[in-house]
Amino acid sequence: MIDQVLARRPAVRALLADRPNELLVIAGLGTPAYDLFDAGDHGGNFYLWGAMGGAAMMGLGLALARPSNPVLVLTGDGEALMGLGALATVAAQKPANLTIAVLDNGHFGETGMQASHTSLGTDLPAVAAACGFAWTATVDGETALRALAPKLTAGAGPGLIRIVVGSEPLPKTLPARDGAYLKTRFRAHLGLQPA
Amino acid sequence: MNAVTHAADTAAVAWKDAVFAALKAADVRQIHYVPDAGHARAISLAHEDPAIRAVVLTTEEEGVAGCAGAWLGGERAALLMQSSGVGNCINMLSLMENCRFPLLALITMRGEWAEFNPWQVPMSRATEPVLTAMGVRCFRVDRPEDVGDVVTAAADMAFGAEQAVAVLLGQRLIGRKVWK
Question: Is residue B179 part of a domain?
Fold first, then answer.
């Protein structure tokens, strides 16, 4: 019997079900940003609408600047693949407070569902482990995701979670796309003043 | 005869020390870099400084995103690279304009003064036009006595006015690369 394929919206909600207020989340462009917004807007959320391949490095810069805050980068397989070298850069810095969660549907969902490299052989947790990540996991169910959620704040990173999800069509739940607003809002959440 | 690869020249030179002093004075806490001989002194000093995190990159655009993340968290970061890396950064620079993130990029120029390697020339020619097209203000330095002031002014503009700024360190300033 084949288990039901995990849907991405419930998956993100499960990972963030008991979200601690100090958790900061950067979402990669496209569906992961919509998923994060759908799970609940938050002052500690930053949504990318471009800069493909940059989510993990934004997470690293943030994690190094805020060692007392757990940082989650929530992105897709296509975005993570574009910034594959960043996994080496992150691992070299050993940020204990950083987790990268990749919603892996094996496809470039935003552009017409072309198969991505994770459908064609690339194993992202294995890449991260080979780079030197402290832990990696592959999950394909909500129960496992809820069980994994405490690792986001355990300070034993860097970690990478591959969340195997389906490629079902979803409504686009759109967060704000004014980058300067999103930046100022995020910094205000941390008590930082605007320029 | 085979060329020999030597360790980077990290000896103290006044203008190179002025670069690092200006970054320290600006309270830069993260230095993201792709190595370059002209930056070797600053990179070495950054690694030795407990108040600074030196982040070695696999490609330059990582540093653009890394500097943005640092600012989100309230820290000042700088990006060190050579001119050949500017092309790698083009789309990532849209992050700086859209979010009005500060960028302080220090770029050593290749391909413009006594260059031996023709492969450095096209990106050298394109460096300033590309940066300008993507909204990065460029300040060029060719005289060693100007380096400290220019880096300080660029840092003030980047972090004070949340602007994307690049300092182009001319190849004549850095000196000829020795090919033997």
Answer: no
* Interatomic CA distance for residues B132 and A70, integer angstroms: 36
**Structure ipTM:** 0.96
CA distance linking residue B70 with residue A64, whole number of Å: 7
Q: Which residues pair with B54 in a beta bridge?
A: B31
Two structure tokens written together for A102: 């990749």
If one counts every other C-beta atom within 10 angstroms of the C-beta of residue A130, the result is 13
- What was the pLDDT predicted at B176? 73
Interchain pair B92, A58: CB under 8 A: no
What chain A holds in terms of domains, given with CATH numbers, is 8-114+124-176 (3.40.50.970)
| Overall domain count for chain B | 1
Nearest chain B CA: its distance from A46 CA (Å): 9
What pLDDT is attached to residue B2?
Answer: 54
- Other beta carbons less than 10 A from residue A70's beta carbon: 22
pLDDT of residue B1: 45
Q: What is the pLDDT of residue A1?
A: 40
User: What's residue B37's pLDDT?
Assistant: 85
Contact A54 B162 (CB under 8 A): no
Q: Give domain status of residue B180, yes or no.
A: no
The domain spanning residue B64 has which CATH number? 3.40.50.970
Q: Which residues of chain A have pLDDT under 50?
A: 1-2
Pairing of strands A107-108, A114-115: antiparallel
Query: Across the interface, do B65 and A49 touch by the CB < 8 Å criterion?
Result: no
Q: Per-residue pLDDT tens for B75-87?
A: 999 999 999 999 9
Contacts of B70 by beta carbon, 8 Å cutoff, 6+ apart: A61, A62, A64, A65, B29, B30, B76, B77
B73 touches B103 (CB < 8 A):
no
Q: How far is Cα A65 from Cα A73, in angstroms, rounded to an integer? A: 15
Contact A163/B at CB under 8 A: no
Cis peptide before A158 (omega within 30 of 0): yes
Residue B27, domain member (yes or no): yes
| Alpha-carbon gap: A6 to the closest alpha carbon of chain B (Å) | 30
Position B97 pLDDT exceeds 70: yes
